[in-house]
Design brief:
Elements: H1 8-20, H2 25-30, H3 36-39, H4 48-62, H5 67-74, H6 81-88, H7 93-103, E1 111-118, E2 123-130, H8 138-157, E3 165-167, H9 176-183, E4 186-188, E5 195-199, H10 212-231, H11 235-245, H12 253-259, H13 264-273, H14 278-296, H15 301-307, H16 313-324, H17 328-334
Parallel strand pairs: 3-4
Antiparallel strand pairs: 1-2, 2-5, 3-5
Helix pairs in contact: 1-4, 5-8, 6-7, 6-10, 11-14, 12-13, 15-16
Length: about 350
């Protein structure tokens, strides 16, 4: 499927927030060479880089640090299309979580959902795993998506399944009390993951609005839509996927071309047609994995460099500085204590 998916409806929600804070949405869009006319088209789909720039510009222009929470508050269950409708028909919270895991790509590929059960504590952890380097808008996007998920849980359980805790990987902001009020539970900052913690017992409680027949029909539509989305896979997305799958030894251009039954020249040309190159995709994947390894804290700097295909630690440091604007050691110091 395409590398980045985000229905334009969500961008319109950001545009409305920008307007509420006294900024002309046209001025906001113009900074990314876009117009309201483009955004009013149902088929409009920005690249991830454009979306990240739009989000960062919204933060700059409004000067509002709580923009993510305010956006998430607007993302109620009926803003999520057929996936939101299917969730409303779920028989249990567990079924709704499994549905979201399978079909979240219909709404966005920004994150994957990872569900983990802790048998000892009888707790469930629903983690958000980023598929892109979110940069300066990481906090905003995490808050928005997490609050959107919380709104879905509230809607399908009629408010009876409150999370034990919400966890964020960034440091506590000045508006932490507002976040606690909006999530309705404890909010922990400086964690090594982002997501929800719920009591296991909540997952099996029957939901009052359950409609098994309607759920099956809605899930069929989700399956069909996901198949359509997958059919639009770009060559660059396929190359990126292969690199991520083989992250402990990236294939060369020649090897990758052979995997696609193409000549290296044809693969190179197709990537150019999509506005990228093999080298650019490799750099992006290395950047993404480098950040994840640093956050995880399981490998030394030398081990990370080796894992990413650098035989010289100095070359890795230079590459990271080019990606992030700072050496990896400085980036590491900025991470929450629990990430180090």
């Amino acid at each position: 499927m395409p590398d980045f998916v985000l229905p334009v409806q969500y961008l319109r929600q950001i545009a409305e927030l920008v307007r509420i804070f006294g900024v002309d949405p046209e001025d906001w869009l113009a900074r990314s060479q876009l117009t309201l006319k483009q955004m009013n088209k149902a088929s409009f789909q920005p690249s991830f880089d454009v979306f990240r720039r739009l989000t960062e510009d919204a933060l700059i222009l409004t000067g509002e640090p709580t923009l993510g929470l305010l956006l998430g508050e607007r993302l109620v269950i009926n803003t999520h299309g057929i996936l939101g409708f299917a969730a409303q028909q779920s028989e249990s919270l567990r079924q709704a979580i499994q549905l979201a895991q399978r079909y979240i790509a219909l709404r966005t590929t920004l994150f994957d959902l990872v569900h983990e059960h802790d048998e000892t504590t009888q707790l469930e952890h629903i983690r958000l795993r980023a598929n892109f380097v979110l940069g300066a808008c990481e906090r905003t996007l995490l808050e928005a998506v997490m609050l959107a998920i919380k709104n879905i849980i509230d809607a399908i359980t009629l408010g009876s399944a409150r999370p034990r805790q919400v966890s964020f990987s960034f440091q506590e902001p000045t508006y932490a009390e507002l976040a606690i009020d909006m999530f309705g539970c404890e909010v922990a900052y400086g964690q090594n993951w982002a997501g929800f913690t719920l009591d296991t017992a909540l997952l099996e409680q029957p939901l009052k609005m359950a409609d098994p027949a309607a759920f099956r029909e809605a899930e069929k539509i989700c399956q069909q839509e996901l198949a359509k989305l997958t059919a639009k896979t770009s060559t660059s997305a396929d190359v990126r996927r292969i690199m991520l799958e083989k992250q402990h030894g990236f294939p060369s251009l020649n090897v990758t071309a052979r995997l696609f039954h193409l000549t290296p020249r044809t693969l190179h040309r197709r990537l150019l047609d999509e506005g990228t190159s093999f080298k650019e995709i490799l750099e992006e994947v290395r950047h993404t994995l480098a950040v994840e390894h640093l956050k995880a804290g399981h490998l030394t700097m030398g081990e990370i460099a080796y894992t990413l295909g650098y035989t010289d630690l100095a070359n890795f440091r230079r590459a990271f500085k080019r990606w992030a604007g700072m050496p990896p050691s400085h980036y590491l110091k900025q991470l929450p204590t629990k990430n180090r």
